[in-house]
Structure formats: structure tokens, C-alpha cells
Write a structure and sequence with these properties.
The chain is of the alpha+beta class. It has three domains: 56 residues; 70 residues, no CATH class; 36 residues, no CATH class. 32% of the residues lie in helices and 16% in strands. It has five helices and four strands. The chain has a two-stranded parallel ribbon with strand order 1-2. It has a two-stranded antiparallel sheet with strand order 3-4. Helix 4 runs antiparallel to helix 5. The radius of gyration is 19 Å and the shape is extended.
């Protein structure tokens, strides 16, 4: 493949973060067409399956379940995650969801993730640098549904301050 003669259509949200992927593809020599769209526009365009790269983040979710179910054949917003169709992946995730034993659940989720990696269902090209730091006075910290502490939909499950003085 010659990048200089290979088009690379990139669909993304309108964010500075996606520019990293765009500039990387340009630096590699690909002929980049970048479509930076709003949320609805991006989801509609992804459903056309005429793109080569979609550098999207999954949002501030900390739950394991959603990391897997979004790649299932009948998962939520299939277009956003590439329209994966894999009966064996689906079987592994369903079995993991149903597993009572934590070690069995872990084994099944890891087997499903290995399948996702082997078949390139999703490729991590970067992580947003968003660390959470707590001072010593914070005890019992537990994140909620999301790790974003500013979010009203579940950022902090529990936290306490110790008395000082």
C-alpha cells in the first residue's frame, strides 16, 4: 500500500482529541478527509460504513458490562462501534454476564476481549489524560457509574473527609 495514493476518510466528533489521529494519518502520508461532526451527525455518518477510521472515546463510563455489550451484534448503538457481528463473541459475553463465579466471569470476559483484539474490533490509539487525585483527608473513596467526578449521573458513589486538627 502506498499512503500517498491511499485515501483515509476519518469520521469524528468535533474535539481537539481527535486531531491527534488525524495528524498521525497525515504524517504517515495518507490522503486524509476528516469529517468532524456533532454527535448525531457522527452517528448517522458511521452508519453509512464508508469511513476508514473513527477515533471516538467511549465516554466516562467505568462499568465492565458496557465495555463488552457495545461490541455485541445486538448491542446499543451498533453503528458507533463498527457493526461487529460475531456469534462466538456474543456467546462469550452472554456467558460472562450470566456467570455467578467471579473467576469464571473474568475468564469469559478475557476470552471475549482476546477475540476482540485478535479480530481488531476496536483499537485503542490513545487515552485522555484525566487522573483522579485525592488528598489524604479523603477516605472511603469509591467511584460511581462514571469516573468523572463533576458528572451528576453517578461520578462519586462515596467519599468522606477525616477531621483535621
Amino acid at each position: 500500500m502506498n499512503p500517498a495514493t491511499t485515501p483515509c476518510r476519518i469520521v469524528s466528533w468535533q474535539s481537539a482529541y481527535t486531531e491527534i489521529a488525524v495528524q498521525a494519518m497525515r504524517k504517515l502520508g495518507f490522503q486524509v478527509e476528516h469529517l468532524a461532526l456533532d454527535d448525531i451527525g457522527a452517528q448517522r455518518r458511521l452508519g453509512q460504513y464508508d469511513w476508514d477510521l473513527a477515533p471516538f472515546g467511549s465516554g466516562p463510563r467505568a462499568d465492565i458490562f458496557l465495555r463488552f455489550v457495545r461490541l455485541m451484534s445486538d448491542g446499543p448503538n451498533v453503528g458507533l462501534w463498527g457493526g461487529t457481528r460475531d456469534a462466538e463473541f456474543d456467546r462469550l459475553v452472554r456467558a460472562a454476564i450470566a456467570a455467578v463465579d467471579i473467576n469464571e466471569r473474568r475468564r469469559l470476559y478475557l476470552a471475549a476481549w482476546q477475540r476482540a483484539m485478535d479480530n481488531y474490533y476496536t483499537v485503542v490509539i490513545g487515552h485522555a489524560p484525566e487522573p483522579i487525585v485525592n488528598r489524604r483527608d479523603v477516605t472511603g473513596y469509591s467511584p460511581g457509574f462514571t469516573w468523572g467526578q463533576h458528572r451528576v449521573d453517578g461520578g462519586l458513589a462515596f467519599g468522606a473527609l477525616t477531621a483535621s486538627g
